[in-house]
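hiii so um. not sure if this is the right channel but i have a protein structure encoded as tokens and i wanna go backwards to a sequence. like what aa goes where. can anyone help
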């Protein structure tokens, strides 16, 4: 790495927190058995919260945010990796309780990293990131529990990172996808371009509804939680599957047991942070094979390390959609 070592740091300051771009130091490399030059990261909603100093995300200070890391191995104590290998890590505590990807150089744990497929660029890997990995976990869960191509699947938060990639993967696999968004007029053609069969207003799902409603969906990929997740459960058919991976609307679940005891609906939790190595390898193989790079490009905007703090503010204000890649080196 020829350029100076730089990092975005969240730190204590005058009884609060501040976030700034600083010159990197040796003690900011973090811990791990693989040293990498970071080439790309991405900006997720959780990263935007961390940049704002949200202590629900930031578990320790000082902290470098960034839950996604893509980079090139400089040195490795693990025989799995060699200098020059391109690697990716998603979650695994990065950007929460250990230093993450908004830095030019970082130590990572070999147990959480995988070598990128040769057919995938580092930019595209960052564009997929945790959001795409979570989408792949959700789609896999639907398939694992018996939801087949041709069936109806609802995707909530469909213009977000998880939702956009889930719509695309499900449509490519032959599912009839209903995409829910708060900006139907603005994003209808965009979501249909990703493969959505139907686009609905999130208002149909975001307010309290009856505990059991007309069964409209065979499966659901939900990233919102709260009333949206509850209504999705109430609209799922007998033995259907609902995956839950987020809480953009809220962490509460004001539900009844009726969908479970009268329709045997299955609610499956999705945790991308702590996925084991074999799961990471398998899901990234699927992402490499199933995600159209031209579609991914349409979903993606790019910022630099110097711009990511401001981009985080925009993310929290609802001014960004799709995926945001952070170019580091």
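sure thing!! here u go:
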């Amino acid at each position: 790495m020829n350029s100076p070592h730089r990092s975005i740091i969240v730190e204590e300051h005058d009884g609060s927190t501040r976030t700034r771009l600083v010159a990197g130091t040796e003690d900011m490399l973090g811990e791990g058995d693989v040293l990498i030059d970071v080439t790309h990261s991405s900006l997720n909603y959780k990263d935007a919260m961390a940049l704002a100093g949200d202590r629900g995300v930031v578990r320790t200070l000082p902290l470098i945010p960034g839950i996604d890391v893509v980079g090139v191995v400089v040195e490795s104590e693990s025989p799995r990796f060699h200098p020059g290998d391109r690697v990716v890590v998603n979650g695994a505590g990065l950007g929460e309780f250990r230093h993450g990807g908004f830095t030019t150089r970082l130590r990572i744990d070999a147990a959480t990293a995988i070598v990128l497929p040769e057919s995938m660029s580092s930019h595209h890997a960052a564009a997929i990131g945790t959001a795409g990995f979570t989408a792949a976990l959700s789609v896999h869960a639907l398939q694992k529990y018996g939801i087949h191509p041709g069936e109806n699947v609802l995707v909530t938060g469909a213009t977000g990172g998880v939702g956009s990639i889930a719509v695309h993967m499900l449509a490519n696999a032959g599912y009839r996808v209903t995409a829910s968004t708060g900006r139907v007029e603005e994003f209808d053609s965009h979501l249909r371009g990703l493969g959505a069969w139907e686009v609905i207003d999130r208002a149909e799902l975001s307010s309290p509804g009856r505990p059991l409603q007309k069964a409209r969906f065979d499966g659901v990929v939900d990233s919102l939680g709260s009333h949206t997740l509850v209504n999705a459960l109430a609209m799922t058919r007998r033995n259907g599957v609902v995956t839950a991976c987020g809480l953009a609307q809220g962490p509460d679940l004001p539900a009844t047991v009726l969908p479970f005891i009268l329709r045997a609906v299955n609610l499956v939790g999705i945790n991308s942070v702590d996925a084991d190595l074999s799961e990471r390898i398998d899901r990234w193989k699927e992402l490499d094979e199933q995600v159209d790079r031209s579609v991914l490009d349409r979903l993606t905007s790019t910022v630099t390390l110097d711009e990511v703090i401001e981009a985080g503010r925009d993310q929290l204000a609802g001014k960004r959609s799709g995926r945001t890649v952070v170019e580091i080196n």
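oh and The CA atoms of residues 52 and 216 lie 39 Å apart.
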